[in-house]
Design goal:
Elements (H helix, E strand, L loop, with lengths): L1 H22 L9 H22 L3 H25 L8 H21 L4
Helix pairs in contact: 1-2, 2-3, 3-4
Length: 115
């Protein structure tokens, strides 16, 4: 779980860093400022969680769970509340749901083996 989650968190971090470099702190003009700020903050938070997971720290699992739960909530809100879309039309949201389920489902079992 740690290696898989760390790699996928790094993929997310690269995506958020790319958005920051190309578009600044507000890469999505359709989204409210607070949501843009949250997504931009994931450039750092994803990196931190990945580093903690790679180093075998429980805090990495905890941070990954918080990130995934809040990122899923933010994306769900953006999809349904702002874009008026749905899960079936959003493959990115579908992948996020699967990754969140993976992280939240495996974290309790993995966490007890970390320092």
């Amino acid at each position: 779980m740690c290696a898989t989650a760390a790699v996928l968190l790094l993929v997310g971090a690269v995506s958020h860093v790319t958005d920051l470099l190309h578009y600044g702190l507000q890469p999505y003009d359709w989204a409210p400022r607070w949501l843009n700020f949250y997504w931009s903050s994931l450039a750092l938070l994803d990196l931190l969680a990945a580093a903690l997971l790679i180093s075998g720290k429980r805090r990495g699992t905890d941070l990954a769970c918080v990130i995934m739960a809040t990122d899923l909530a933010a994306n769900w809100y953006a999809t349904y509340g702002i874009q008026h879309s749905n899960l079936a039309a959003q493959p990115g949201l579908q992948r996020l749901v699967a990754f969140t389920a993976f992280v939240l489902g495996t974290a309790p079992f993995v966490r007890r083996h970390l320092s």
